[in-house]
Amino acid sequence: MANVLRNSAKFGFSGVLSQLSIHSRHGRECVSPCFSLQQRNNSTSPKIKVDLDSSTGVAVLRMQSPPVNSLSLDFLTEFCINLEKLEMDRSCRGLIITSTLSKVFSAGLDIMEMYGKSPERCGEFWKAVQEMWLKLYGSNMVTMAAINGSSPAGGCLMSLGCDYRIMADNPRYSIGLNETQLGIVAPFWFKDTLVNTVGNRAAELSLELGLLYSAPDALKIGLVDQLVPEDQVLSTAQDTMSKWLAVPDHARQIDQCVISVCIYYINTSPLPPDHARQIDQCVISVCI
Amino acid sequence: MANVLRNSAKFGFSGVLSQLSIHSRHGRECVSPCFSLQQRNNSTSPKIKVDLDSSTGVAVLRMQSPPVNSLSLDFLTEFCINLEKLEMDRSCRGLIITSTLSKVFSAGLDIMEMYGKSPERCGEFWKAVQEMWLKLYGSNMVTMAAINGSSPAGGCLMSLGCDYRIMADNPRYSIGLNETQLGIVAPFWFKDTLVNTVGNRAAELSLELGLLYSAPDALKIGLVDQLVPEDQVLSTAQDTMSKWLAVPDHARQIDQCVISVCIYYINTSPLPPDHARQIDQCVISVCI
Amino acid sequence: MANVLRNSAKFGFSGVLSQLSIHSRHGRECVSPCFSLQQRNNSTSPKIKVDLDSSTGVAVLRMQSPPVNSLSLDFLTEFCINLEKLEMDRSCRGLIITSTLSKVFSAGLDIMEMYGKSPERCGEFWKAVQEMWLKLYGSNMVTMAAINGSSPAGGCLMSLGCDYRIMADNPRYSIGLNETQLGIVAPFWFKDTLVNTVGNRAAELSLELGLLYSAPDALKIGLVDQLVPEDQVLSTAQDTMSKWLAVPDHARQIDQCVISVCIYYINTSPLPPDHARQIDQCVISVCI
């Protein structure tokens, strides 16, 4: 989502990446200054594979961490580093997230990260979860989830951080913030994102009962935007992306920013004064 | 709904029950210290009958005040006392509210309480209305309205304070916040509850025109969650309750609390500092 | 919409009309003290024609500025003056806005007002846009848009400021806040109004992509309330108006005010203390 949001994220949320970053010549954070522009956004690692098509400006990020793309601290760190690299690359305007695994998009937070760990380690883990969400939600790129399998809990959150959600039309695949069923409480910002997507009452029922929705039911309440046959999830995302990229970037980004400000205020109170000023300025400068 | 909400209610809303209460050994308010655990939650009065099934942990509260279960000051006081007793009883986890009268759940606020009365008496009455809503909305129990008849105005508000609403599938039964038709303005918190349930636009039309919805129309806009044949309203509520009670209590309660905080802030400004801290703590302690 | 809102508009938003106004004998603003009661609300100008039927208390405001009822500074000023005159006239309780042009309600803001103009002139123009919205949204009258043609951007905003929207059932007519497509960002308050009408997610997609909806699609997401054959748009508005006017004015107005307060707070921070007090008083005085 929007630029101003993303920039301001530097103030409040140094997160897992802060130690790695130095300031680039653009005044933005940069993970490593020695990446060459050509290669840096086509990376492969044990957990995540990124392909950027420079002709379209669209990157596909494939999660490939068997058995179920669990969101461990390692996974999240790698995910965020890749996101940040793409964000820095001005040739990249759109991002599609999908999975290489059969039947699963992501099974969500790695429960082992919360079991028998020190409070410090737990805190580090939750910071990384929040970092993932903020980087997705605050991205300047158009972000789409190509959900080609089940996507419970943290997997659902990842989808909710994107601008658009396309899911495989398979009733055996399910999606939802089902943390409550496991005795875990979804934090404030999980809730905010869900309410903004499906409305208050559906979110209420969903969270209190920890509901998982089949793909068709998820479409019905608006948790995903579109269902397509399983083998067309990625291609549909690519087609849809080209329509989104036809919209002037700066207006779309500021719109996203205007819409997301409410959520953002809740999560970064007190808001860095620079951030409020930037939003005001950008709105005013476009309006007048 | 949630525990933290309920406890904090002690700060801001002493209401009709404050004179009756002393502190029990659990540090909670208790209406009377001499109730025995076995009998105290199966009570019968002229207006309200409560049956607690200790094997399931589910209480059924039957309103039986002819002709139309009007919410008078007396009725509300009795209603709140019963609610508080159930809330104190750790064996009670679920509450179903229904009516013994034919064709009516509750006709809402007793209009005679607002006609030709002193401001003090009016204030006392409205405090009791608010107390009813806060006790329901802030309850730790799973609360369900088994709406086996018409339920205008205050009767609708009572239903909206519950976690789930099942209504008799009879188009002659109606429900809605129709105060405007009577020249009465629904207070802020009536509006908040309605918006949270049916969304802003439906609430807007509903309140500005004082609309009453037939049971099928109420289902369509989400004012009730489910319609069933009239003779199955209570049994369906009991079946549904058992599904809700299968969800871990503490996670569901905190989820409810997280969701309801927005409404609550509006109604208790300034929020007792202890309350904010308790919510923060519970969210943090579960997350980390 | 509501009275208290309208009155308070005097504090924060002096706008284009402030130089013209003096205080009338009712303590309200009055554009000109020499208008006679009989004639002042049946006016014709190059751009706008107003007919008030004193038997029903309903005025019809016809926009007649070819080719497409563009909202120029001149048009908006005239529009606001007419609105203010009707608002002052106690015999006028309802307002229907429609167009005399074929196929178009209003094409929205006059883009020439934002191109190559000084910042001062731009500021003046945007103040007039905001004034239009505030006068409509804060009106005491029941306001209805009889949308007998396409209504993009500012034309859609004008409709959203009304209490009810009836549109011609013609799939070639479109409506929506499509500013983003033009590289223009819809201000905060455009967004707020849209979210309140169609919900957050539909507003998000709508604004980020700058979507225009055909009449049937607009009905589907709730952007308009009703579709009728093109030749029945005005008559249906008149029928619907008579139902709205059957509701007690003061309760409906305060309901509107209670609902709109959230939007209003956002747009007038800090809120004039008198305004907050007035709302509190009116709610309290009706409740107790």
TrEMBL record, chains A, B, C:
A Gene Ontology cellular-component term: mitochondrial matrix
MF terms in GO: delta(3)-delta(2)-enoyl-CoA isomerase activity
InterPro entries, per the entry: ClpP/crotonase-like_dom_sf (IPR029045), Enoyl-CoA_hyd/isom_CS (IPR018376), Enoyl-CoA_hydra/iso (IPR001753)
One Pfam family this sequence matches: ECH_1
Entry's localization field: Mitochondrion matrix
CDD domains: crotonase-like (cd06558)
Keyword check for Disulfide bond: no
Catalysis performed (reactions): (3Z)-decenoyl-CoA = (2E)-decenoyl-CoA; a (3E)-enoyl-CoA = a 4-saturated (2E)-enoyl-CoA; (2E)-tetradecenoyl-CoA = (3Z)-tetradecenoyl-CoA; (3Z)-octenoyl-CoA = (2E)-octenoyl-CoA
Bilayer-spanning residue ranges: none
Pathway listed: Lipid metabolism; fatty acid beta-oxidation
Primary location: mitochondrion
Gene3D superfamilies named among the record's database cross-references: 2-enoyl-CoA Hydratase, Chain A, domain 1
GO biological process: fatty acid beta-oxidation
EC number per UniProt: 5.3.3.8
PANTHER family per the UniProt record, alphabetical: ENOYL-COA DELTA ISOMERASE 1, MITOCHONDRIAL, ENOYL-COA HYDRATASE-RELATED
Protein role: Key enzyme of fatty acid beta-oxidation. Able to isomerize both 3-cis (3Z) and 3-trans (3E) double bonds into the 2-trans (2E) form in a range of enoyl-CoA species, with a preference for (3Z)-enoyl-CoAs over (3E)-enoyl-CoAs. The catalytic efficiency of this enzyme is not affected by the fatty acyl chain length.
Family the entry assigns: Belongs to the enoyl-CoA hydratase/isomerase family.
Record text on subunit structure and interactions: Homotrimer.
Name by which UniProt lists this protein: Enoyl-CoA delta isomerase 1, mitochondrial
Species of provenance: Salvelinus namaycush
